[in-house]
Structure formats: C-alpha cells, structure tokens
Amino acid sequence: MARDGPPAAKAAPLAHPATLAERFDAVRAASVAFAQGLSDADATVQSMPDASPIKWHLAHTTWFFETFLLGEASTLPGKRYHPYDPRFAYLFNSYYEAAGPRHPRPQRGLLTRPTLDEVLAYRRHVDTAMHALLLHAELAPDTVGLITLGLHHEQQHQELMHTDLLHLFAQNPLRPAHRQPCAVPHAASPMRWIEHAGGQFRIGHPGDASSTGGHFAFDCETPAHDVLLRPFAIASRVVTNGEWRDFIEDGGYRMAGLWLSDGWATVQREGWGHPLYWELRNGEWHSMTLAGMQPVDDDAPVQHVSYFEADAFARWAGKRLPTEQEWEVAANLSGEMSGSVSSPAHRAMEQRFGPVWQWTASPYVAYPGFRTASGAVGEYNGKFMCGQFVLRGGSIATPPGHARATYRNFFYPHQRWQFCGLRLAEDR
Amino acid sequence: MARDGPPAAKAAPLAHPATLAERFDAVRAASVAFAQGLSDADATVQSMPDASPIKWHLAHTTWFFETFLLGEASTLPGKRYHPYDPRFAYLFNSYYEAAGPRHPRPQRGLLTRPTLDEVLAYRRHVDTAMHALLLHAELAPDTVGLITLGLHHEQQHQELMHTDLLHLFAQNPLRPAHRQPCAVPHAASPMRWIEHAGGQFRIGHPGDASSTGGHFAFDCETPAHDVLLRPFAIASRVVTNGEWRDFIEDGGYRMAGLWLSDGWATVQREGWGHPLYWELRNGEWHSMTLAGMQPVDDDAPVQHVSYFEADAFARWAGKRLPTEQEWEVAANLSGEMSGSVSSPAHRAMEQRFGPVWQWTASPYVAYPGFRTASGAVGEYNGKFMCGQFVLRGGSIATPPGHARATYRNFFYPHQRWQFCGLRLAEDR
Amino acid sequence: MARDGPPAAKAAPLAHPATLAERFDAVRAASVAFAQGLSDADATVQSMPDASPIKWHLAHTTWFFETFLLGEASTLPGKRYHPYDPRFAYLFNSYYEAAGPRHPRPQRGLLTRPTLDEVLAYRRHVDTAMHALLLHAELAPDTVGLITLGLHHEQQHQELMHTDLLHLFAQNPLRPAHRQPCAVPHAASPMRWIEHAGGQFRIGHPGDASSTGGHFAFDCETPAHDVLLRPFAIASRVVTNGEWRDFIEDGGYRMAGLWLSDGWATVQREGWGHPLYWELRNGEWHSMTLAGMQPVDDDAPVQHVSYFEADAFARWAGKRLPTEQEWEVAANLSGEMSGSVSSPAHRAMEQRFGPVWQWTASPYVAYPGFRTASGAVGEYNGKFMCGQFVLRGGSIATPPGHARATYRNFFYPHQRWQFCGLRLAEDR
Amino acid sequence: MARDGPPAAKAAPLAHPATLAERFDAVRAASVAFAQGLSDADATVQSMPDASPIKWHLAHTTWFFETFLLGEASTLPGKRYHPYDPRFAYLFNSYYEAAGPRHPRPQRGLLTRPTLDEVLAYRRHVDTAMHALLLHAELAPDTVGLITLGLHHEQQHQELMHTDLLHLFAQNPLRPAHRQPCAVPHAASPMRWIEHAGGQFRIGHPGDASSTGGHFAFDCETPAHDVLLRPFAIASRVVTNGEWRDFIEDGGYRMAGLWLSDGWATVQREGWGHPLYWELRNGEWHSMTLAGMQPVDDDAPVQHVSYFEADAFARWAGKRLPTEQEWEVAANLSGEMSGSVSSPAHRAMEQRFGPVWQWTASPYVAYPGFRTASGAVGEYNGKFMCGQFVLRGGSIATPPGHARATYRNFFYPHQRWQFCGLRLAEDR
C-alpha cells in the first residue's frame, strides 16, 4: 500500500448521487467510530516513521475531500467554500507534491495541536460542505469519481488506523487494549492443494464503468490483460500459527540458506526470531493484539510476518509463494466469487479476503499498458512501483466490501506491522 | 543538569517537619499548576531524546518519593505503603540502576497510557501517603534529608517542564502558546567591567547543616575549598539579543577561526546561524517562546545558545567566558548576596540568578575531595562528570529560591534548548 | 549482478578438455593483465562497501577454483591438493555460507597483506594445480561444468575490476588514469523506432547442453518459457550524453513528478544533478574515466546512471523503459543474432551488447519454474532476487563473448558505479 | 593530542642554527626509518577516521615545512621556492583553515596516488630546500621557532604512525608484524604510595627561552601559574596487566555503578570487556602489538584503555585518577628530574615518561591567562579544548626527549588506540 494512501483510481462512478451520499456518510462514520475510546494522546503519538497518528489519519482523509472536492476546482456552483483552517493544508497533505509543501512525515507525532476534538470538528465542517455538494442535482462524472476515490482512500486509512494503533500500543509496557477480544477460536481446516492446469488467463480490472457495472478499482489494477500461467497448485488455506511454530522450532530463523540475502541481513541486524508482537510468557507464546496480549492460537492464521519471513518459510516447507497472477486466477476460479457450477468445492480457495493479506512472489510493478492519470490526484500513480511486493486478499482490518480479486496491496519486504500472512503454492 | 535530575544532595535538614510539610505542598502544587491548560497529548509527546514528556516529569518526581520514602526503606512505622501501580516503577525510573530496570529514555513519548489524569491521581495517592509521613512526630534526619532532596529534585524538573514543553511546541507549525506574554521590555543597563584583584578565595558549599543554617546543596557543590584566582574583570550584566545580532551580522557563524573544532563541525552539520528558536519573519527576528512567537527584544538577554556559540561569541568580542570559580567569587562579592557595606554598588554583578543560565569556561568535574554518597539516591553522584560544562546563575524558569551562588548546573556544549546565555570576562 | 559474483550456472560443458584448458588460460591471463600498471596500494584500497579491491577480485576468483575444484571434492585422482594458505579461505570467500565464515565485506580494503605480489603467486599456485586437473584425460561432466562456471564467474569479476578501480580513482583529487583514452568519437546514429506487433514468444535459456550446442548460461536465465507481449516499439539505439544533457538543462533532476518516490528521496538526499563522475570544468561537462578526466562526448551513450534516473528520463521523454522480455525478444529478432533474411535492417537494434548495460523495467525475480541448484555453488541461486532491477546487453568492460541475449545482469535502483545506460520503449 | 598535530608552540629557539640543522636531519630521518619495511599498501590504507595513513603522516609533516617555512612567508632571501606539486597543499593540510581548503579527513585512505615512493621524493625535495634555509647565516628568531615547532610536530606524528599502523594491522586477520618483539619481561615493582602534603605549587611552562635555557614547549603548557593542592598520595608506578585482569575477573566491565554515564553507554554499545587488542586464545590473553600477537605480560603496564575504563578501574580499586596538577607536582618532586638531594628515593615516581601515557582526571582546558598565537600556525591554539582529557607522561612510541613534566597530551574519553594506561591517586 502506498505509504499514506492509494494510487489514483480508475473511477467507476456509481449511478445515483443519493446512494453516494449514503455511502459517504457510512464510510466517514466508520473512521470516527474507530477513534471512540481513544484519548487525545492515543490519537496523537506516532510510534515509528512508517505509522501515522490516528488524528492525522482522521484529518488527512478529510483534507482529501477539502482539497480535491471543495477547493478551487470544486464543481459546486454559487457558493465558495471557506477552509476550516488554511494551515491544515500544510499539516495534512501526505505526499502530493502538486498540492504544495507539507509537514515532514516523521514529525506527524509532534502535532499535539490541533487536538482530537478539533480534528473531529474539522471533519464535521467538511462533511457539511460535502453534503451540500452531494445533494446537488447534477454531479459531473469526474466529481462522482473523485468522491468515490476519496471514500476508498478513507477505507485504506481505516485499515492503517488499526495497524498503527496496534503498533503504538505494543510499544507500551502496559500493553493497553482498544477493544474486547472478538475472535472465536476454531480448528483450522485441513490443508488441500488446489490444482491448476495453467494456460492463458485474463486478470486485472477493465477500469471501465460500462463493462463492470460501476465497480471501482484503483488504477494500478488496470488494464485488464492476458497472462500465461504454467501448471501450478495453490494451498486451500493460509499458513497457521501452529505451522509457523514448527518453522521456529526447526531453527528456521537461524538457517541462512532459507533466506534472501537482504532478508538474512535483516534477521541478523534486527534479531528476528518470531513474528512481530509475539512474546514468550511463562513458556507460552502470546501476541499483542488490539485486545491486548492474547495467547497465540495455533489454528489461527499467522500474521505480522514480513515478505522475507514468508519467503523463507515457503522455502523451508519445500514450496514457494504464488505469483499475484496465480493468486488472482485461483481466486477467480473459486466458487465464492463466481457462485457458478463451474467452481466445484474442490477448487474453492478459502480465506480469500481475510483474515490476513497474503504475500505473493510478485514485485509491485505496472501492468502492461498502464497509464498514469493526470492532475494532482493521479500525479504519482506509479511512484511506489519500486522495491515493494504485492499482497492479495484482505485482512480482518479491511473494511467490508473494500477488497476484491483484482486488488493489489503492496509493502516493502521488511515490513511487518500490517496484518500480513501467506498462502503456499508449488509448480506442477 | 543531569539529564533527568539531580546528583544526590548533601542533605541539610530543615528544623521543623511542619515547615517541611508546607514546603512539600507548595513544591508539589507548583508542578501541577504548570500542567494546567495542557491537553493529554501535550503532556504525552516527547519531541527529542533530550526532552521528556510533561506527564513523565509529573510521574517521575512522584516515583522518587514513592521509591525512596514510601518503599521498603520507609521509616514510617505501623503502616505498609501500597504502591499505586507496581508497573510504574519500571516506567518512571530515570537512570537509577540500583532501583531496577527502566523504560528506555527515547521511548518515553510512546506512553499514551497512563493518561495525564491517571498520573495526577498517582500524584494524589503518593501525596496522601507522604502527608502521613510528614505529620509523623519524629522524622529521622535522613528522612528529612531525603524529602528535602526530593523537593529540590522536583524543582529541577519544573524547569525542565518549561524547556521541554517549549521545545515540543516549537516543532509545531502552528506555534501554540502555553501562556500570555509576560515580559515587560525595558532597556538593558550599560555594560560595566567589574574588576577583581585575584587572590585566594573559598568557594563551594560546606555541606553541613550546622555551619549553614540548614541551607540545602547538591553534593557536587561540596566540599568548600580554596582556589587561587588571577586578576580578572567580569561583565556587570549578561549579553543581550542586540549584541548577539551584531555577532550574526558580522558573520560570526561563518568565521571558522572563532570556533572550537567540535563547535565548528556542529555549526556546519546543523546549519546554525542564530540562536535556537529564532526565525526571520518579514525581515524581523522573532523567537518561539511559551507565549508563542514573539519579536526578539534587543535589550533582553540572549538565550537558547550553546556553549559552542557562547565561546565563539566571547572570542569574537575579544573576551572570554568566566570560569565557574571567578563567577562564584564575583557573585559572592556582589552586594545582592552579602548585603554588607563591603560590596559597594560598583562591584554589584547584575542578573546573578536570572533570567538566563550563564555558560562558564569550566568543565563539570568533581571538586577536590568530592565524595559520592552511598545508596541508590547517591549511586551516581559523579556519573555525569564528563563532557559537560558548568552554568551558573539561574533562569526565568528556575523556581524562586532554588538557585544560589554555589549552584552548579551543567549541560553538553552543543545543547541549546535550555534557557542559557552568557556573561563575559577578561584577564587583567 | 550479485554483489560478488554470479548465481550458479546451468553448466553446459564444453566438448574438449583441451579447449577448456586454453580457455582457462586465456580468462585467467586477462585478470592479471588488467592489474598491470597498478601499484600495491591501487590494488588494495576499497573505495566503498559496494566495491572490492582489485587484489580481492584476483584472489577471490582464485579461491573459487581452489575451493570448488581443488578442495576435498576434487575429482583429481591420486594427488591431494595443498592449499596455498589455509587462512585465505576466510579472507576470500565472498558470500557462500556453506563454504564457512568469511571476512566482512566492508573491511576488504583493510587487508594490506597479503600483498599484490603474494596474490599473484597464489594465482600461479592454483593455476598450476588446475593445469594438472585440466590435462587429466577424463574430466567428469560436473567438473567441466564447475570449471566453466568458474571462468564465467571470473569474467564477471573482470568487469567489476573496471568499475571498482574507476570508482577508487574518481575519489582521488589527482584523478589518476589507468590507461590511454581509447574511444574514437563518432556521430550517434539517428534514432529510429523498431515496431513489434506483440504476441507469444519464447525467452530464456534452455539450460541444456544438448539442445544449445553447449552454450553456457547462468541458472537465473532458465528455464526457457513463453511470454505474452503487447504491441510495442523499441529504440534503435541507446540514449546519448547529448540527450541526457537536454534532460539536465530542462530541469529533470528538479521535477518531483518525474521520479519514483524512493528515487526522489535519493535525488534530494544525495544532491544528484547529473550522472556519476560528471563535473563541470570551465562550463564544460567532463567525466572521470579509466583514462582520467575526459570531455563528455554528446554522441556517446550516457553511462553511470541509476535505475531511478533512467526511469525518470524515460518519463520526461514521454516514453518508458522496455521490460526484459521485450528487450530479449527485440534482440533475438535483430539481424545481428539470427543473421537470417527474416531480420531486415529496419528491425536491427543497435548496441545490443555494448557499450552500456541497459536498465529494464523488470525487477529481478525468478523465471517460472526456476529451480535452485544443490551444493555450495548453487546454495544461493535466488538469494539476490529482491529489490534489484534487470539490465540487459553488456558494456565496454564486459569481456568479449561473455554476454548473450538471455543474459540477466542486475543491480539496485540507486547504484550508478557500473557502466549502465538505457534504451527507450513505448506502447503501441 | 590534537587529532592531526600540535597546538602552536611557544617557540623557544635554540641558540645555534647548526645544531638545529642536525636536529632537523635526525627527526626527519626517524620518520623515514619507521616506514622501512612497509609496503605501498601498508602506507596507504586508513583503518578508521581517527587514524591516518603512514604515507599521509610522512607527507603532512613535510607540507608543514613547505607551507610555513618555504612558502610565501619564507624568510630565505634571493631564491623563490618551487612547490613539489601544488596539489599537495590540498591533499596534506590537516586542519588549518587559514591555509586553505583540504581533503576530507575520512577519505585520506583513498589516496593511492601519490605513491609511497613519490611521498619520499617529496620529502627529499623539501629537505633540500630546508637545508638551504638552515644553512643560512642569520635565521630570524621566528624562523627558528617555526622550524623547532615543525620538528616537535613531526615527533608527535611519529608516535601516531606507531598507533595508526598498529590499528591497521590489528584489523587484518593475518595479524602481521612490523618488527621483532623487543620487550624483555621483568617483574613489576611493588606498589608504593607517595605522600604529598599539599600546598601552593607552580606548574606549567614559562614559555620564555631566557628563563628556560631554550627549552621548547607547546603553548597549551603556558603560562606557568600557581595552583593549590590538597594533601594526596600518588602511586609509585602505573597499573599492570595483572591488576587489570583482576578487574576483568571481578566483573568490572559489567558493574554499572563503576562507570560514568557516557562510559557505561559506550561499554554496552561497543561490547567492551577488555582493553583494545586483547584476545583470548586457548584460554590465555594475548594482545596485538607491532610485533604481532603476543601473550599478555601480567607485570607490564596495561595499555590501550580509554579514559572511561581508567576511571572505572580507579573507582573499582577504591582510588581515583590524579589531576594533571597533582601529576606534574609529583613528577617535579621526583628525583629523576631534579636530581637533587631534595628528592629522596621514597618520593620517586617511577615510569614518569613511559611506557604508557597516563590518563588524568583533568579535562583539557586553557591554563589561566592562556593566549593563542597569531597567524595560521597558531590559528587554532585552543580549538581542541573541549571534551578531551589530559594525559601525562609519555609512551614507548614517544620519541626520546620529546616528553617533559609539563607536557599535556589529550584524547577523547572513549579513545583507546593510543598507548594509554593509568596511575592511581587518592585523597589524604
């Protein structure tokens, strides 16, 4: 995922502005709901440069609408929008060079002012102005597209609010909790290998509302294009904590031969010996969660592992990670999506869109024929296409309905604070 | 000043516990008063490793009483103290190795919990227990000494609360203010040179209540001892902003020949060209203060300069910094202290105890015959005696009555976030 | 290219040991010839962690034969090899974990002993033992494969000797020269766009001697496989210095919108404004070369640019970099290789194998079906497949005959000290 | 010691230029003699930023004479000096800002050219010109003073050549030797405490030839001045390896309470557990020396310990380090210097001028009344008076006759690559 947000979207506008307004309210409310129960301080502190304060997420997603929908380029006739505070443009721009200078990312956590209450007031101010816009009879297609993009952008930040808060709380020796434990343990399903014969397949998103019924996609999912796949098999489910514990106990973190060169250097420099947030307490593995420290459930999917670890685990298991093309083709052929008779149960890939993002073997690069959009929103469509790897699926923190089979998430290979796990594959 | 507090004291107990109880309440209340008007976030964030969060200061000074007065070593008979939260011992120990492990200093700002309200409740809990102790009829002299030390320790942290909050607010582009401007500008007095003939003088603190009327001193001020001074002159007042502006305009920050080797490297690496917090706005120098951005007053003392800058300025002016021995002798001979006829007006050194600490040419080392105290409080009496320089006097942020002529403050030569200025001297 | 050498080879043994012995002598002699004219100091110093001393290259390539051909696993009957110095195994192992511990890479330049003369003696000692092996009547196919691999490995280090020495000499204000200027300037050919209709193509190396006439390839070039290409055009020649100067003068290094996010951060951190080694002297661009400082020839290919710069240049030009698949297909269809009537002149891509390596848009990852070899040599076949980009072609420093259309060189996107340039492409 | 050389001298010219010429030849020859047996590479590599290449020392000491004696300011009439290579002024200036820009210190080891032979030729060129100057009938006193300073400067670099070469060879796993072992082990003398009653004493150097018989001193040794000392005792000899081993075995490196705060941070960050260069081999301590690895002799003085370690050792032993004033007074009262009856054997301090420099408790600061000299040579007389500690005595690498009782050597408290040890003291 781009550090602070999404690549620009191939906007596929929804049919009815009224529906868009409802959706706007629902998405905006979800962000505020997450902040319930957080103190001003909880919402202010930045625990590392990769993470951002909750308050910053709340303000930045609001700045997006203020800047790109309510600013000078606003299509709303007759009324000129008054910015809530003109200094916020500097504070809450993430990385849009064309939108002007901005506060340095590593210093976001020093902004004790504005307070959380002031940021919530800022949100209400912008929401009011957005309602005036949303209720306008004739929204231009581009405007609808930008609003839709803003909502998907905000959903991405909702996931980041989970991961960034968890990282912050994990630094505190008191290990505070943000919510009650919610996961009901249940046994992992048996592992099956789903066979694929290979051949030519179409993947990616057409990026064209008329052909998709208006389904949204980020531009990096386009264009749809054909790929050649060799025969392969993919695991029916993701790797579990229990399986990962076997890897640890077999010495996987100490076998140089399993690791990429950069990964091995990271293991040694950082002293990695288990997934992020795991701790041994009285001989039992526990893990920090948003519900505080919890015992590690062997049957649950492993999460908070880096690409380096996922890749080493796969090699240890005698397998490999799937490519993103294999993953998407396998997901499309699973019954959950097509719902057709052509996808019998034995081809059904479980845990496609949760509870963990799944590292793939594919570097995040442009699809053939990829074009960047114009303007500030699309200024940097491809600027993150270097050094990162694609993850597919979705996580427990991904807002419902946000993920899809063509979705391309991406992170650097050493990063672990997201809800990332893995699914195995092998050649046939 | 020790990063997080004081060297242990040569405790000179006050005569009456009742007076001590009043003093306890006054000092403790002053810390809480400073935090008035701060948000939970303001009190939580750490703007750099040298600084600590306000909340941490409030808790650490409380931990001091809890640990050294109310803990196992408590002399209070009959009642066993119940710690407010046993985990706080880990969070709020600063650097006392004998008091157990502690939270890493650079991560103090990640502690969003306990909240500011919880820390204030912690203070009340400890204050209540301390009251029981203070009202006890027969406090052992050692106990009185430890309480006295704890209060002077807390006063040091009160000054740090000023400087650390100012540093935090200075990082915020909104440049928030904690209070109203309070300084009333008035013209600087003419600069006079106070002549001293040299000779043998006694400096330092005897560290013995019977000979001092019970005056407190930190152990690094002891023992009193004789020094030889050559003839010298010392400036009647400290250097002003206007004089510093001359230094800037004459190119002082670009003349390698004025600087210590390590200082010149710092100037170039950090790009220094003016005191910390100064900014040019529309061609006028302004400075960040606890009252927000304010115009620089040419007649006011320059502050927020490092030893490196003070030393270079003195060389530029054809003078030098006084040694701490010269400063103390000159201060003692000034009428303000002795109040005797032997100190006529022309020997009176102005601005002895404010508004800025005054860099001296003296490295912070042990006085001849210095002995460290025993126990955890005195564990590290001399552990900071390396690489730092002594400052004398006091600042606007020093609690009234805290400073004295023998007081030795100390910081590293590159540090600028304290209220530090300088007074010139020269050989005769 | 792997930092210190090659991925293991899919060895395609040559038919006749006699030919192999001649080839052995020729390759080994070329390394020594490069060192002619260098002082002991020139051959010892390491100018940055990415580079290695010339002496180290000479010894490490020798260690390869000593360890993998003459060591315990030697197939030579009857005689046991005596190592020249058993401590050299520690000093001159590059990164083979299975071959035991090794001297830290960044400290290679501290080895003033053994001297250059001693290293040359070490080479002669090993060469003598290798001759005994090479002249043996019946070399096992695996042995022939390992020797062949060792020679290609040494050729890779021969190129690194050029780039590492150039980097060292470029740090010296005296700008020493290792040889006479050799390039004869001539006009760049006109730029043409070679059209390709797209479709399904086979790329990569079969890795099987019987089907290739014994042609060698590194294992990362295998397996041969089919790819789908969309219609594209590729430039007939590489980008010139004159074209790069236009980019500079148009402000390319200051336009954030042209750059990848990581690239822009690098430009700002490093202050990049031109290719590595360029300097303005009296208003004229010059560049450090192995013949010392030389004027920049506008008609010559630009070199010493990073992936970040190549990618930004392509965006500035309204084009893009080719993928490695496009490059290989275009190279295969060029007349130079096939020599058949099917490749008319208008499809001929110039400068395929020199004078500069050409950055492609493709991250260096495994081909579908890629398998790592077994044993120490193949221990880490894929360990560098993370974060690097593929370069195709070859350079003036590549030994004749070393490059081929399937060859995959690779470096990190910020690295510039190799002879790297670029060729443009665009969608059709 | 200033990183690259001396503070400027209070020149005390010798009476006869003829004697000066002989001394010139002797000092210059000693530098060249040290380089005998070193390869070009040995003389070129820089093992850390604190150290310099041997070749650089040889050239820099020569540059000193070329710049300050033979350059424009030369007093030699009639003949204009032609610099050997005008580019050397940039390469071999150490830190004299007034002498123009200079090559960055950490990159001195990248200068493979000029070669060692060329540097030796440079030395001969300058020596020839110096001879013409030295044989001139009427050398101005300032000229004599500058030459004398240049020779003492070169002697300082002769000591640095020992320590820098040792550091370089210690980085090489082959542990090469520069010479044969020369130390003849003998038993350490019994430790006695030499009592001093305290009082007023004169220390420092008068800096005036007429009153010293022409004895040279660096300006930081001046002016002579009176100091008050309290009663103290000083050890008759320096601390031995055997005594240091007791400190190690008692856990001294693991007791936080023994260490200065900055020292403890260094111990933990660097993992110190013994003096620099010590290694356990088969359970026996060995140490790297210029004669290669040698067993540690329990009776020999400990060396290669930092101020932090010396200070911690003294605290562990229940003693302290002497101040530089105490050391000088005790040295002056020892019979070795005065040779008078007033210094009976029981006051004789052994090992005053070797074999190790002795850390004192005194920061390196200006003596009262210290004045910097004018001109480039004296440009930065006091620029190193910050953060360093004074060492007294001399070492096995100090040229004979170079040290004296007033001599003030100085290094940072973490530095260990010099021949530094310690002598204990205590209050009386």
Features:
homotetramer, 428 residues, alpha+beta, Four Helix Bundle (Hemerythrin (Met), subunit A), paralog of FGE (formylglycine-generating enzyme), 2 domains, 4-stranded mixed β-sheet, 3-stranded antiparallel β-sheet, 14 strands, 32% helix, globular
Summarize, please.
Chains A, B, C, D: Keywords: Iron, Oxidoreductase. Four copies of one chain form a homotetramer. By secondary structure, the first copy, chain A, is an alpha+beta fold.
Describe the structure.
- 4 copies of one chain form a homotetramer.
- With 428 residues, the first copy, chain A, is an alpha+beta fold.
- Chain A folds into 2 domains: 9-171, Four Helix Bundle (Hemerythrin (Met), subunit A) (Up-down Bundle), CATH 1.20.120; 180-428, paralog of FGE (formylglycine-generating enzyme) (Alpha-Beta Complex), CATH 3.90.1580.10.
- Helix content of chain A is 32%, strand content 13%.
- Chain A contains 11 helices and 14 strands.
- In chain A, strands 12-11-10-13 form a 4-stranded mixed beta sheet. A 3-stranded antiparallel beta sheet of chain A has the order 2-6-14, with helices on one face. In chain A, strands 7-8-9 form a 3-stranded antiparallel beta sheet.
- In chain A, helix 1 (17-35) packs antiparallel against helix 4 (116-134), helix 1 (17-35) runs parallel beside helix 5 (141-171) and helix 2 (54-68) packs antiparallel against helix 5 (141-171).
- The longest helix of chain A is centred in the middle third of the chain and has 31 residues, at 141-171.
- The first copy, chain A, starts with 8 loop residues before the first strand and ends with a strand.
- Residues 5-17 and 336-341 of chain A have low confidence and may be disordered.
- The A-C interface holds A 3, 95, 97-98, 200, 225-230, 256-257, 259-264, 307-308, 323, 361-363, 365-366, 368-369, 379-380, 382-387, 413, 427 and C 3, 95, 97-98, 200, 225-230, 256-257, 259-264, 307-308, 323, 361-363, 365-366, 368-369, 379-380, 382-387, 413, 427.
- Chains A, B, C, D: InterPro entries: CTDL_fold, DinB-like, DinB/YfiT-like, EgtB, Sulfatase_Mod_Factor_Kinase, SUMF_dom, SUMF_sf.
- Chains A, B, C, D: It holds the Pfam family FGE-sulfatase.
